[in-house]
Design goal:
The chain has ten helices and 17 strands.
Length: 364
Amino acid sequence: MRWDELSTPALTVDADVLDRNLRRMADYCQSHSLGLRPHTKTHKIPEVARLQVRYGAIGLTVAKVGEAEVMCGAGLDNILVAYPVMGPKKHERLAALALNHSMLVSLDSETVAEALASAAKQQSATIGVLVEFDAGLGRCGLEPGPGLVDLAQKIMRLPSLRFRGLMCYPGQVSGSAEARQREIARVVEKVERARAAFRQEQIPVEIVSAGSTPSAFQSHLIPGLTEIRPGTYVYNDMNTFYQGACAVEDCAARVVTTVVSTAVAGGAILDAGSKTLSSDPLRFGPASGYGYIVEAPDAPIVKLNEEHGYVDMRRAPRQLRVGDVVSIIPNHVCTCVNMHDEIFVVRQGMVERTWRVAARGKIR
């Protein structure tokens, strides 16, 4: 069937655009001798993860143990849980995965390290550790310097843990190309301080992991990085577009929706609301609206209820009518995907197959 014959609302991905996005990032990393460990938080789909590995990814990144379980269960390996996992049940599950898979976890406290080591020792497992430092976002991570080295040394003394290197998340690298360039310079300074602290103590650092989609193609400007972890690049979204990190034609994911009412003058109602698109606003560009209607770009989505999307038609040259089917590029594709059980793969307008969003809702 054609994409506009789907029962709506439905989430679709253009297979050709997805393939182009994957190739572009893989080629960049290869040309700059950077390992690619993409974050699966955007797609949450083992089939997409396998494509990333096929294009040369050295492993995968997840945020939660549940996501790691899905990827390992699908036969994937070399997985980084880029999150300070806390809680005995989660530590037990992570240790169980490490019995048969290569597992890494990031952390920034001795408390987490000790609890994780205890769980791994009980199961005779070994878990790799990346110590996280703050590259400027101010979310997680120690300040680069002696404290970072001290935690790494404590990890090296704990049973069943293996210090592998360092991790940071430069999530503050965003906005215009000029703004990203300025922030990259600050990240360079933070990374160098972290590496210098370990050189001073003559402690080898095998991995220095960083990266995000907005900063991805500037990663070669940061000396010492061994790998990057972009996630959104697979599909892209309107926030990525308004940062200048992609073009509209690079946005592979679209929500297909139907106009269900035009009873109120000057407006139209879609069957896609906050439970379909997510209520995440634009963080860049016009900083208003809840998605971009490809077939009616001058008709902004101005409000969302749970099942209703409000479209302002007052300045639109094309008036939407009840029964019209349109496609929307979401503001934030990661949260949008997490609301859908499946994604329909489209090529040249035709639905080819369906992928289950296997890791959706895996918040523990």
